[in-house]
Hints:
It comes from Flavivirga eckloniae. This is DUF4292 domain-containing protein. It is built from 3 helices and 14 strands. It is an alpha+beta fold and 201 residues long. Residues 2-15 have low confidence and may be disordered.
Amino acid sequence: MRYLISSFCLLFIACGSYSKKRNFQIQTTSNKTIHNPYFSNEKKDYVYKANITVRDNNFGGILIVKKLGEAHHRIVFTTEMGNKIFDFSFLNDTFKVNFIIETIDKAILINILKKDFKALVQEKIPVIKSYSSQDTLVYETALGNKKHFYFKTKQLDKIARVKNGKEKVTFLFLEINDNIANQIKISHSNIKLKINLKSIN
């Protein structure tokens, strides 16, 4: 009986929410949306030197993100010689694969990349709850039916996709200047997928 009670206690702790595990303090705020500014300028081509590791495959090249209109982005990843690796379009809630090489043309992987890049370019996200953690404001959101937490000190510097109280995917925005994150790092905890971007604009 004592063992059973202990097991229930451990299960309860393990299943605690992400905000409770991180000791976030709930905040009252008028913010109904959180704004991601990093790919929001239609007049700018966002060009990054990219390294993407997918399982046992490693791809290096150039990633270009272009905002074409309201809630409309095109993302193209090429080798440095200009050969396409993938070409995606996002328009509102629709996603289109314009091109992808056979090596990574797998439905599961495409869906993961879709969710990652959607989080990267989505500009306005409705806020469910607001928290604080030391000098950081944290906004709980739902993006594509997945729980995301947006961390903002002076600027947005982290997004975490969370499941069962644990970070499954983290997006780090580094060396931020004039609404441009000169370095972006995306890493998955449960699969071998990492995306490292360094601005070459």
